[in-house]
Specification:
Elements lengths: L8 H16 L2 E4 L23 H9 L19 H11 L24 H9 L19 H12 L6 H21 L16 E4 H4 L66 H8 L11 H9 L20 H14 L23 H11 L1
Antiparallel strand pairs: 1-2
Helix pairs in contact: 2-10, 3-4, 5-9, 5-10, 8-9
């Protein structure tokens, strides 16, 4: 027989506390909605050292907008899925909601306990993303390059560069909101305050079975976010196809796909249609879905389009890679004045379409000349 020392009640209590902490430790508080599992460092990733998108990726990782996988890799060439895109835009932008979900999940294929449910909910409420007919979001579907660009351009007002353009956009949005109020009683009033992001507690071990950290990488040509509440899925079980405002009957096309959405955008010359603009920049302009032509033209003028390795090849229907999304997000933040544009001597800047002269570089040249 072994003689075990008798433990005091205090010792037992501490041992019990230690076991409890050990059980809870793997849980990571994802209050920001990112699907991250305690990354070791956001400074750099071993698999992007020679990648073209490195100058876009690293600054966003330092701001905790992007993160890598559990093995420390970023996987820049991996496609971004719709749930992951929702998570990354949630981290990158602080948009006010344009609609509010009354209760529950707005999509049938996004249960309330889904890892990206809160990010998808916010992407819906802020107007960045919508679903498909039947009330589905398709969270595991790859998002195409054109869909990502349209979502960013439409909801960040990057084309509104003048008071006139802003006034036009405001009038358009007001009309859309008014129409939505009569056609969809289930859409709630716009909140006057940004909704609180719900924290997610996910077991650390489970993240390796899920998607990558934060917003990483959808196989169809769906239309991304629509800024009109009239074309979104109802949160009371009404199929989007039953809504008077729905125009998409094809199950592969998002609800917001509509010929009217390709109308001229604010900030684009009325004498130079969007189709001319995209044709002037991209040799594969005919591959751009009709609904997205105006948005792509505006995104081009706003300098958020980044094409590697050839500026003139957009590849609009190809899945957006994690490198692509990093570049688009970075350029959108540049357009908002929230981050410095890449210096002209950085090779990656050569892939930015319609890139304006670097102001810092211009100032330096002027000072040198003096």
């Amino acid at each position: 027989m072994f003689n075990f020392p008798r433990l005091s009640s205090e010792t037992v209590a501490f041992l019990t506390l230690g076991l409890a902490i050990g059980a809870v430790a793997p849980l990571v508080n994802l209050a920001s909605g990112a699907v991250v599992a305690a990354p070791t460092s956001n400074a750099s990733f071993p698999d992007i050292q020679d990648h073209w998108a490195r100058p876009f990726i690293e600054p966003l990782a330092e701001k905790d907008i992007l993160a890598g996988y559990l093995d420390g890799a970023y996987k820049p060439n991996q496609p971004v899925q719709r749930d992951e895109f929702a998570a990354v835009i949630r981290k990158a932008f602080n948009q006010e909601p344009v609609r509010k979900i009354a209760s529950g999940s707005v999509y049938k294929d996004v249960p309330s306990d889904y890892w990206a449910a809160s990010a998808i909910e916010e992407a819906y409420q802020t107007g960045f993303m919508t679903g498909y007919p039947g009330g589905f979001f398709r969270p595991n579907q790859d998002i195409s390059r054109v869909e990502a660009l349209v979502a960013l351009e439409k909801n960040l007002n990057l084309s509104s560069t003048s008071p006139t353009a802003s006034a036009t956009q405001t009038t358009t949005n007001q009309a859309a909101t008014s129409q939505a109020a009569t056609s969809q009683a289930t859409t709630q009033p716009v909140s006057t305050r940004r909704t609180t992001k719900k924290p997610l507690f996910i077991p650390l071990a489970m993240t390796s079975l899920m998607q990558p950290l934060v917003t990483p990488p959808a196989n169809s040509q769906m239309m991304p976010a629509n800024d009109s509440p009239s074309s979104v899925a109802s949160d009371k079980g009404v199929s989007p196809s039953e809504s008077p405002s729905s125009v998409a009957s094809d199950q592969s096309v998002p609800l917001s796909s509509s010929p009217s959405s390709a109308a001229s955008k604010p900030g684009l010359s009325s004498t130079r249609p969007a189709s001319f603009t995209v044709s002037n920049y991209y040799v594969d302009a005919k591959e751009i879905p009709y609904y997205a032509v105006g948005n792509v033209a505006a995104a081009t003028k706003a300098n958020i389009v980044v094409n590697y390795p050839n500026q003139q090849i957009l590849n609009p229907t190809q899945p957006a890679s994690r490198g692509d999304v990093a570049a688009f997000i970075y350029q959108a933040l540049v357009a908002q004045g929230k981050i410095e544009q890449l210096p002209s001597n950085v090779e990656a800047s050569n892939y930015i379409v319609n890139r304006p002269p670097n102001s810092n570089q211009s100032n330096q040249n002027t000072q040198t000349a003096q």
